[in-house]
Backbone:
């Protein structure tokens, strides 16, 4: 496949312009393994989440309706589709929103991987202690003896915010001592909420990579502490991948087929890479060449893009290119990508595009106006995807060389909305008004 934006691409990235990159190493194929992980690992993760479901339902009442399974709706968004088409060309196929913004417990995609890894660690400790058997009804984890067991253990994580929320809330509920190492860009309300749950927040003046590095160092020096490694953890990655198994069923329920005549396109916001990587890995295992995955990054934090396009992965940061890594998109302000994810996705990812912050605000306001769904800025990064694919020369080249030119009317596009429902109302409204103001300024 030809490399999309040509020789000037790196210049445009450095100038923090919006770009669309097609992965020249992409291979249209079925896979049974990537990064050492397989369908068996995904099913194992799904089974573990099922074992914990009775416990989750008992302590988080908002999950009771879904029997303790932490899942989000997949919704058709026809009014948003109309709005996007009115300022651009038609979006061929169906447009759907995966509402991880409304996942229970922590309101972001991190409720998948983050919570999963905490549960896995808790299960391991309880099994080792002889206090639990996989045959038990896990709602017994509610009992005081388990809280006492877990209170002798620590969990630590470095986070820009949302991973800290997921891990902090879940670990604290189980009874662990939790330490969340946060970067300077983390929002005050997230720190306040976690402190309220009994989580210890350690703050750093610099960015996410520093918070992770320091958190890891402190945790490694303490044998009772378990560090959740956002950059390299296979458990996190597998927790995210379970989304694909669930999505397969949700699409069946909506009557959406995916096969050689019905391609699926998925657009997922990317920070360090674990969330979108895990979801995309799961989708490729299930749908093989019929699913096409694109990541979206802020123009000021295109870490996965520069890592994959140079092949240097975690050996390069956006700061190395003179890019400041300053964005209002929480969770995406990451300067250095996960090497594990970049390498695992090397032949699986179709491409990556970047989005300006200003565009994110406009899109979240449009979504609120058309569908009455409120998401956070980072979660809106998926929306420009269909237009890049359908209306840019590089996107059209991708469609043509993939043999999909006459199949786009039968396609489905899923925009992955990765966060937002935990944002306090006043902040939610300020995001909305900011988006409206940008839109007004442009329509004058
Ligand atoms: C963390 C996050 C992402 C991206 O996940 P990574 O695993 O960091 O790539 C996307 N959107 C939101 C809202 C997030 O919090």
Residues:
């Amino acid at each position: 496949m030809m490399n999309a934006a040509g020789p000037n691409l790196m210049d445009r990235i450095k100038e923090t312009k919006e770009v669309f990159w097609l992965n020249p190493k992409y291979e249209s194929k079925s896979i049974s393994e990537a990064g050492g992980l397989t369908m068996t690992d995904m099913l194992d993760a799904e089974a573990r989440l099922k074992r914990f479901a009775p416990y989750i339902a008992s302590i988080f009442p908002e999950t009771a309706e879904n029997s303790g399974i932490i899942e989000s709706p997949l919704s058709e968004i026809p009014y948003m589709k109309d709005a996007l088409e009115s300022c651009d060309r038609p979006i061929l196929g169906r447009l759907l929103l995966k509402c991880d913004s409304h996942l229970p417990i922590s309101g972001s995609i991190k409720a998948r991987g983050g919570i999963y890894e905490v549960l896995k660690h808790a299960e391991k400790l309880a099994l080792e202690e002889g206090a639990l058997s996989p045959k038990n009804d896990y709602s017994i984890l509610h009992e005081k003896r388990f809280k006492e067991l877990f209170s002798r253990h620590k969990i630590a994580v470095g986070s820009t915010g949302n991973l800290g929320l997921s891990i902090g809330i879940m670990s604290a509920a189980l009874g662990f001592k939790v330490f969340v190492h946060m970067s300077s860009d983390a929002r005050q309300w997230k720190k306040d909420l976690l402190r309220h749950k009994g989580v210890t927040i350690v703050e750093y003046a610099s960015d996410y990579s520093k918070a992770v590095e320091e958190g890891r160092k402190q945790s490694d020096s303490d044998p009772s502490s378990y560090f959740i490694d956002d950059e390299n953890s296979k458990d996190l990655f597998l927790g995210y991948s379970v989304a694909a198994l669930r999505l397969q069923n949700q699409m069946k329920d909506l009557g959406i087929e995916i096969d050689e005549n019905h391609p699926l396109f998925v657009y997922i916001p990317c920070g360090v890479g674990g969330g979108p990587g895990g979801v995309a890995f799961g989708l490729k295992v299930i749908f093989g060449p019929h699913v096409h995955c694109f990541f979206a990054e802020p123009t000021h934090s295109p870490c996965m893009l520069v890592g994959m396009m140079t092949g240097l992965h975690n050996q390069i940061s956006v700061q190395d290119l003179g890019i400041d890594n300053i964005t209002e998109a929480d969770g995406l302000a990451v300067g250095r990508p996960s090497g594990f994810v970049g390498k695992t996705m090397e032949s699986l990812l179709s491409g990556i595009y970047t989005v300006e912050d200003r565009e994110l605000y406009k899109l979240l306001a449009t979504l609120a106006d058309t569908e009455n769904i409120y998401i956070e800025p980072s979660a809106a990064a998926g929306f420009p995807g269909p237009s890049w694919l359908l209306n840019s020369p590089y996107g059209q080249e991708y469609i043509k060389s993939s043999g999909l030119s006459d199949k786009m009317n039968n396609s489905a596009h899923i925009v992955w909305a990765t966060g937002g429902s935990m944002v306090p109302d006043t902040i939610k409204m300020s995001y909305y008004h900011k988006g409206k103001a940008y839109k007004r300024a442009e329509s004058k």
In short: The chain has 16 helices and 13 strands. The pocket of pyridoxal-5'-phosphate is lined by residues 108-110, 162, 269-276, 330-332, 376, 378-379, 418-419 (CB under 6 Å).
